[in-house]
Amino acid sequence: MHKFPALILGLCAVSASAHAEIVGQVSTKFKWMGPNDKIVVEVFQDPDIPGIACYLSRAKTGGISGAVGVAEDTSDASLACRQIGPVSLPEDIASGKADGSDVFKKRTSLFTKTMQVARFYDAPRNTLVYLTYSDRIIEGSPKNSVSVVVLMPWQAKSGKNPSDDPAASR
To answer: What are the residue boundaries of the structural domains of the chain, listed by start?
Structure first.
């Protein structure tokens, strides 16, 4: 009896953590009833590292079951992450303590399946590694995609590096 509110809170937490903007979508399969099956392209920013954006393409099941939210999306996904501004790593990420942390999570079935993006830091190569995968309460999927972002110094729009300007350091 007390498990139902916990389940609802858990579902709300999963959907609340999935903050992404839809960039575009294409239909892949015509459905007579309800929306078509699609590939959706979404973008999200790493919540802990400003200056990093990730683009995720994933399958979205249409039809009547997809329209009412009970369809299960496939585990197919692709991921591309890029540095879009200056990056400063928090200590827990730079030290590796936050390796494997979820930076994105989206429900892909009514109750049991989620698509996630986890982040790792490869310190010797100064590189962030992002991994997308899908899991279920009982069993996940081996389908995955990885993207790396080699961290580079970021230059201001003027073409000058702000660290080269003595006035900027005052």
So the answer is: 14-150
